[in-house]
Give the backbone structure.
Amino acid sequence: MTATRTAAGAPERVRPAGYAVVRPGGRGSFLVHRRSLAVTCVLAVLLAAVCVAYLCVGESFVAPGEVVKVVFGQPSPDQLVVGELREPRLALGLLVGAAFGVSGALIQTVARNPLASPDVIGVTHGAGAVTVAAMTYGVTSYSALPYLSITGGLGAAALVYVFAWRRGLHAARFVLIGIGFSVALSSVTQLFLTKGDYLVAQQAKVWLTGSLNGRGYAEARPLANFVLLAVPCALWAARAQRTVSFDDDTATALGIRLGRIRFGLVALGVVLASVATGAAGPVDFVALLAPQIARRLTRTAQIPLLASALTGALVVVVADLLARKLFSPTELPVGVMTAAVGAPYLMWLIVRSRSRSGEPS
């Protein structure tokens, strides 16, 4: 809020348009963007409704009342179907979607480019290349794959960051170099697939499409631990997003260490995307779609992290529900459904950016 003076000379606080003042317990106060709060609440309610539908629908339909009983731990004849088969897969889908949503929001904020997402700039391809290489040489432990994915994702991001740095981080160069590394790392992944055992290569190919089939709490637990550890970092990131919007000269004049803040935001985004990739494979385009949908819904200058997380979880759960039912009894990998929506959206973004720059599309 900014301070002005009334006709009597008393200071008066003037809050920005669209914001409400919240005073919890009468001590202190903070501003809340009304539209963002409303959109976040609507997304949470919609996600809860989709989760119930997800648990109801399958090879056999389970009544919503029985689903609620199982979720709250009450005895139900559908305990096996809902509690043992569908609930673990849903938990993993929620965590994967939220992690990709926040990761995309952070990296797009730093790059100031809606095209910059972990799957476009090579982070998930780096995580995928290292994970497939490990699978080729016999490493299939669910506890080891997330750490290997982080190693690959951080390595790819570090290379992109170093090659894109030239007296500062320039958004266009960052995206173009990231796309180049994505292509190179995809070739490395194909190389390991050809060198590996046939059965392992088939498993790796399914994993590379991004799939929740046959997965559950074993993959969700390591991801949940990383997401919980990332919550304090996300609170810092929500505040740091405002300073990243400054240009380098303004930040230097204000004494803001912009380089360190950008590095911290990118590192957090890379870790979240890499761990999510280790849990379910590179579920493409979720990190690209979710932040932009959330930003357009909330109409805010910065990409909202919580709304991005909810949108990412919503996209993955809806996509997996469609992947399970559209071609039943065959279940498609969830990555196929997200790619079917994300690929046209990416083309639309590229055409739109070329039109804005005045180039013929």
